[in-house]
Amino acid sequence: MADCPVNKDNLSAANPALSAPTSSIINNDAKGIAGGLGSGASSFFDINKIVTAAQQYTALNGLANELFGYGVKWFRAVPQQRSKDVIFQEYTLSNVDECPIDIKVIIAAGNMPDSKYTYDLMGLEYEVPLEFQIDKFYWESKVGFGTAPQKLDVVYFPIENKLYEVESTYLFRGFMGQETSWKINLKKYQPKSSRRESVALQETIDNYTVSVEEIFGTSISNDIKKLVDDTQFSQFNGTSKDKFKKIDTELKTITQEISIYGTVVAQSFYDMASPVWYDAVTYNESDLINTTSDRSLTAWIQPRTPVSAPKIYNVTSITPILSIDPPHGKSNYSIVIDTNQGYDAIELNSAVIISRPGALNLYAKIIEIGTNPLILYCLINPFVIEDLNAIKTDWTTQIGYKLYVNEPISILDGINDFGDHVLSVNIYANQYIAINYGHAYSNDDAYVIRMDDKILDNEWYAFVINIGNSWKQYSVYVWKKHETDKNEKLQNVYYETLRMYPEDIAIDSYTINKSNAYLTNLRLYNTTIEEEKQAKELLSYFTKDSDQIIISDNCDQIMKIPYINKSR
What we know:
alpha+beta, Jelly Rolls, 8-stranded antiparallel beta sheet, 7-stranded antiparallel beta sheet, 9 helices, 15% helix, elongated, disordered N terminus
């Protein structure tokens, strides 16, 4: 090898071609290495041209991002430096920028995210994965040099109306191994406690998106309320800590099951004759009713024969007052009673029952009392007069009428700020259901329905009163235990519908007033109850529609022992 002439020349590692200008083994032109390392028209690898091509590729990549990119709004989640975790090698807390960045992204093959939604226990999910790219230099021109899209960034697609967050990101190397673009994977946006989002950002997101709460929030809340309803299940009901009602201290609760063919309807009820004050129960619930909202009222009632028999007066005559401007207030009839009996049991504004044994039955309100002779100036409701005239036109001239004082059975009494009874339901003379609604039919001016037969003392009846502003009618249903059918359990004994005139009313409070009756399962709903659903609702000890409940009172046993917050 030492004698070889080729190996006698010194070689330079820097440029062996210059050190060995000629060689019988290697032809410099055939090597085709140019750009200072060779020459010749046949070169196929020009490094200067490669650099130019790489620059052009980068420019075209950015231009394509600008021209064909899909516009999104980008909320950057900037890590908090103080949250650096060296164990998990990440930042555990981040702050989202106040203002979104308008930026364009390239989606593979131009396939925009479609509406292939899936639903699971965690809610609605988008089709994943969703991957797109952003040119590196384009990103830096929009956001800042040295920045990068990162995990937890929030991305909103305006046209698709979808909100995502960044799941992962990496720097993609393209032509000649250059760092050309960011490849980003997205998933559905989920609020996170570790990502602080300002009120301004939340308002921005709310403007751009519709949340599950906005679409299904009311339904979700109603479903939860059906399961957990304090008006029915609160441990404080019937105690001094009851937050739904105030109860007269002398009101008695009788613990006794009401069972209908094995179905327990109630386990206790109020004795409405026992309280000292007229307002036996006052509910801490106000109410606003407009011309398109409905209400329904249900209750179980048992009329009671008074413990002490009322004083009965013989009626001498009943005469209508035909004066346009009656001298005795609102009275429209004068009733003369036997003066030998006195009138110590009769008071102004008392409700009296006037009846003939086995025949007509009516009620009136005493407006004034005259003497010599003893005359009661009374107000008889026009609906009652209309019914009486339909039965017997000369009812006022009949003889044998008896009169005694008997206050109506109060189911519910709604009073406004001025003391007017604007939503009340009362039962007079065990036969007339009087409903006050609105200002035109408040107080003594009530809608009155006359039942075909009187309800009997000491028997349970269920009442359903629908007040349908939306259909401009109110209806009354009366139910009782079926005599023979153990499957049906209840039978409808009366039904009537009357036209009503919708009106906006505001109710300051609801009460149940003192009367000779037992009462339980009082419920006021913000909707009407169809006839086919009434029996099921009346037989339910707890209502399953508590999301529609305004008042629900199962008349639980009243606990008068003091409430002790903490035991010692």
